[in-house]
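If your schedule permits, I should be very grateful for your opinion on a structural question. Kindly check, if you would, that the fold set down in the tokens agrees with what the sequence suggests. Thank you for your consideration; the sequence and its tokens are set out here:
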Amino acid sequence: MRIVHLTGPTFDALAAGDLSTANTTSPVPMSDYFAGLDWRSVWRMRTEQVRQDPDDAAWVTGVIWDDDRQLAVGRAGYHGPPDAEGMVEIGYAVDPAHRRRGYARAALEALLQRARDEVAVRTIRVTISPDNTASYALARIFQ
């Protein structure tokens, strides 16, 4: 599993719900779920963010890619590069069709490792919706 970063044109297409265009600009093919209503607000946010600072694309939401299955299973990344205090915030979500297979854990591990490896990062934050018990349980493993 790895996290594949996306570019501004891919964010634009996903924000518009245009999977066909997104898949022509993305380094990996994505399923309908990626361009669906559930994730569109995230893509709109990333579109604007990368438009303001193209370097943010290397930090923000990418595709959780299963190399073995050659399959996009979710999204993961940071809300942006480290802020002035060295804080990054992690976000991730797995397509419901691919949950309960360890993808969220693998993505979280990859994001935590990258943050540990970055000299500019001093604080890692994970914000979880109060009703997301699975993510709470996962985050507790890494406390």
Summary: Strands lie at 2-4, 62-66, 71-78, 87-94, 123-126.
